[in-house]
């Protein structure tokens, strides 16, 4: 299958995402791995909590992958997203693209992560030592 | 019109629940925008959000789409995945 979409409350595995997009027609695989940052806007993060409207999020992630495969002529694309509580350094998102040539794989990964952040119904709450905030929710 | 509404992220906290059954003072021609206006009045905190999308049947709805109580309706505050 050329597209693999996963939302999971278990740790994401980069190698299995990579294996999923491996393809004999590919000349390269590009992979984007998002990680939980310790500092954001000068505040120290304790952990993040991700919540998804899972049914819709899977559909929206699939739309992104289908468009990327089509537009960038990829061999395969995989998009994995974690939900639940994540500590500093953990991986909320992995995007992998295989393509005959590297340029398409790089561009497809950027397209996919940028679009995911705009359209996929997943929400991130930053937990600080002195409070918490739903990211981007309010001005 | 009676609808079931799912709420996520900050809207879940504002509504106080992940799912809610609402009896709307709206007739059958009501639109997504009518629902949003109703919710803004009932839950003024929602007005402070950068945006409030509404999904019907797990697809982003347009403001002038008719509300369909048979579909799953969900509040989509600004997303922040990745």
Find the CATH topology of chain B.
Ubiquitin-like (UB roll)
Report strand % of chain B: 25-35%
Number of domains of chain B: 1
Terminal CA distance of chain B reads 37 Å
Give the integer mean of the pLDDT values of chain B: 96
- The residue fraction in helices of chain B comes out at 10-25%
Domain count of chain A:
1
Overall geometry of chain A comes to elongated
Structural class call of chain A reads: alpha+beta
CATH superfamily of chain B: Beta-grasp domain
Overall 3D form of chain B: globular
Strand arrangement in the largest pleated sheet of chain B: 2-1-5-3-4
Instruction: Detail the poorly predicted runs of chain B.
Output: none
Low-pLDDT residue spans of chain A: none
CATH architecture tag of chain A: Alpha-Beta Complex
Helix content of chain A: 25-40%
- Report the top-level CATH class of chain A: Alpha Beta
Total number of helical segments of chain A?
3
Secondary structure tally: strands of chain A:
9
Cα Rg of chain A: 15 Å
Oligomer: heterodimer
Could you explain how this protein is built, in words?
- The complex is a heterodimer of chains A (139) and B (82).
- Chain A is built from three helices and nine strands.
- Chain A has helices at residues 14-21, 54-71, 102-119, and strands spanning 3-8, 28-34, 39-40, 43-52, 76-82, 84-86, 93-99, 122-128, 131-134.
- In chain A, strand 3 and strand 4 (43-52) form a beta hairpin.
- The longest helix of chain A is centred in the middle third of the chain and has 18 residues, at 54-71.
- Chain A starts with a strand and ends in a 5-residue tail after the last strand.
- Chain B has helices spanning 9-15, 32-42; strands spanning 2-7, 19-23, 53-56, 59-60, 73-76.
- Chain B has 82 residues and is of the alpha+beta class.
- The termini of chain B are far apart.
- Helix content of chain B is 22%, strand content 26%.
- At the A-B interface, strand 4, helix 2, helix 3 and strand 8 of A face helix 1 of B.
